[in-house]
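Example record

The entry below shows one chain as it appears in the dataset: sequence first, then structure tokens.
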Amino acid sequence: MKTLGMGILSLIAFLTVGSLKAQTADDVINKYVNALGGKDLIAGIKTLYEEGSMQFGGTEMPSTTYIVNGKAFKSVVDFNGQEIVQVVTLDKGGWVINPAMGQTTATAMPEEQTKIFKMSMDVGGPLLNYAAKGNKVELVGKDTTAGGVAYKLKMTTRDGFSVMIYIDSKTYYLVKTVAEVPGQGESTTTFSDHKKTDYGLVVPYTAEISNPQFQLVITQKKVEVNKTIDPAIFDMPK
């Protein structure tokens, strides 16, 4: 009887490992991209415009995000009547205005921070065409997170940043990322409330960000695809 029991356990272990090996990182990524809307749909996205709010320490702050796909990113947050602005572009680096930190005029963004923000200007995310972008991805297993089971992918970017990415095993939506952010420590972002826009792109309307320094919740209220965006808004004020 003991031998039979060990045999069953061995068979279960074999089937579990075999199932994981059968599912490759590329399999998961392809299903993730299809869940977003597919490569062809994403390729047709020129810009992404979002209006929402950030909740921080009991305070709700209106926010606006402008993205020119693969070229530029701008975030504007109204902080007690003053604007916190963060901008990064593919060809000119980044800049920031942060009155909450005593920066009332535009200041060049540190290079390490610029490299991180450049991932935000990619509508399809760093997993889409990851090899062409110089990123490396491996499937390291499964984990229970965000109320379900998710595939756990380890991505190393071309700039050397390591990010754990969690893709829901049923919906194939992005549900969590864990990354080591320079100067902030480990940062965890949980994504939820995924909705399809009028264009067909699926977007998480809620993101909860947590690290040793702060916690905040970002909620999108309006998302527009291919809205006209003036490129001049990304220029650093003199």
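Notes for this example: Confidence is low (pLDDT under 50) at residues 1-21. The first strand starts at residue 47 and ends at 56.
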